[in-house]
């Protein structure tokens, strides 16, 4: 379904429907669900190129797609880019980056971000906790 979503998104520009953060976010979520992390990276770059604000939703979708696509380095890069762009990171963003680190057995990063959640007053949930624990196990940090 991500293909149809992107097609509709592209067609909107042809008929002069304004593409904004909301329309880009909808396309991003469709790509995330289809694990189309490369397409999502293109959308993020396009947003920057045309001056559309990249927000927590678009970044979280991209990080989640990278996590699902076993692209932990790219997920980490996007997560850090959020700081540079002054985009708020929420529980969904942290969950996705910790899970990406888990997939890549990057226990140091997983623990760093898990701890950072408390420092930033972002609620830590069971999913994120379990991902951090699993990252330690995958990194053989008993």
Distance between termini?
Answer: 41 Å
Strand content: under 5%
Shape: elongated
Biggest beta sheet summary: none
Report mean pLDDT, rounded to a whole number.
91
Give the ordered list of helices and strands. Answer: HHHHHHHH
Low-confidence region ranges? none
Number of helices: 8
Strand segment count: 0
Indicate the radius of gyration in whole angstroms: 16 Å
Class computed from helices, strands and strand pairing: mainly alpha
Q: Work out the helicity level.
A: over 70%
Give the quaternary arrangement of the chains.
single chain
Task: Describe, in plain words, how this protein is organized in 3D.
- The structure is a single chain.
- Helix content is 74%, strand content 0%.
- The protein is an all-alpha fold and 142 residues long.
- Helix 5 (72-84) runs antiparallel to helix 6, helix 6 (91-103) runs antiparallel to helix 7 (107-119) and helix 6 (91-103) runs parallel beside helix 8 (126-138).
- The longest helix has 14 residues, at 37-50.
- The radius of gyration is 16 Å and the shape is elongated.
- The model has no long low-confidence stretch (mean pLDDT 91).
């Amino acid at each position: 379904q991500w293909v149809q979503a992107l097609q509709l998104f592209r067609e909107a520009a042809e008929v002069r429907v304004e593409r904004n953060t909301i329309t880009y976010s909808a396309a991003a979520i469709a790509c995330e669900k289809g694990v189309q992390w490369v397409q999502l990276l293109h959308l993020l770059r396009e947003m920057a190129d045309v001056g559309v604000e990249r927000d927590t939703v678009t970044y979280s979708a991209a990080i989640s797609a990278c996590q699902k696509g076993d692209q932990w380095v790219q997920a980490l890069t996007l997560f850090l880019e959020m700081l540079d762009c002054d985009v708020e990171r929420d529980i969904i963003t942290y969950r996705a980056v910790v899970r990406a680190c888990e997939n890549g057995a990057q226990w140091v990063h997983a623990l760093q971000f898990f701890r950072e959640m408390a420092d930033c007053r972002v609620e830590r949930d069971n999913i994120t906790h379990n991902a951090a624990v699993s990252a330690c196990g995958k990194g053989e940090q008993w």
